Amino acid sequence: MDRAELADFLRTRREALRPEDVGLPRTGRRRTAGLRREEIAALSSMSSDYYSRIEQQRGPRPSEQMLAAIAHGLRLSLDERDHLFRLGGYATPLRVSRSDHINPGMLAIFQRMEDTPAQIMNHLGETLAQNRFSALLIGDQTRHTGMARALAYRWFTDPAERQLFPAEDHPGNGRTITAQLHGAHTRDPANPRVSAVVQALLESSEEFTEIWNEHPVIGPYCAPKRINHPQVGSMELHGQSLIDPDQSQILTVFTASPGSESHNKLQFLSVLGGHLV
């Protein structure tokens, strides 16, 4: 363990962060560059004294769990996280599942989107982050746990997942969702989480199995999506996506053609937001 290098690395990354980068309000003048030690400690779910001792080259050697928590709190990239582990004297963590560590740059873009529905999903179709407008539009997709976090699993096992979409669009949506899962499985066939979802659906859904056996393939183009919202009615929306190839994550922003009826309904939904349950 290199205490001096570890402390210096943490300090530089902490000073490079701004409050708005991590969702904190900027209040008054700040005497130090970047975030305070106690703010990083809170973001890392540890005491400020424990974190401060690491930056001051004091205290015991931090465990792998503590370093992982600090990496999350500092919004480190995967490469930066690996470097942190090496400074701590540990082997770098396996990158078998890259799904829950959102790239700091992508997260910063997402956090600035308040006036349009936006969400970040991983290669398995799990929603990692979702803004308030997106939740108003399609419901809170971050609430799911276990295998139900995967969109494909919910689509083929939970009828409630299809309620927002016209019945005539269900076959096309199912094929698209299956193709996305098939692509994730092809790119990383050894990923146990992807394999588990695929196997569970093959055993439980004839509809999924039929589509899966056709080896569906889909390109990057996202066709317009029709949504029947219970408060504002039918809308036709486009999904504009930003892809992070290193982490297999997609930031999707839902938009409607300016001046269209769908655009007006989307804006009306944002106004109704405070009254919806």
Walk me through this protein's architecture.
By secondary structure, the chain is an alpha+beta fold. The protein has helices at residues 3-16, 37-43, 48-55, 64-73, 78-87, 104-111, 132-138, 151-157, 170-187, 192-204, 206-212, 261-272, and strands at 118-122, 127-130, 225-229, 233-244, 249-255. The chain has a five-stranded antiparallel β-sheet. A hairpin with a 3-residue loop joins strand 3 and strand 4 (233-244). Helix 8 packs parallel to helix 10 (192-204) and helix 10 packs across helix 11 (206-212). The protein is globular, with a radius of gyration of 21 Å. The N and C termini lie far apart (52 Å). The mean pLDDT is 87.
Uncertain residue segments:
none
Q: Biggest sheet: strands, sense, closure?
A: 5 strands, antiparallel
What is the count of helical runs? 12
How far the N terminus sits from the C terminus, by CA atoms, comes to: 52 Å
Mean pLDDT equals 87
Run of helices and strands: HHHHHHEEHHHHHEEEH
Rg over C-alpha atoms, rounded to the nearest angstrom: 21 Å
**Extended strand count:** 5
Q: What spatial order of strands do you see in the largest sheet?
A: 2-1-5-4-3
Determine the fraction of residues in helical runs and give it as a percent range.
40-55%
Structural class: alpha+beta
The fraction of residues in strands falls at: 5-15%
Shape: globular
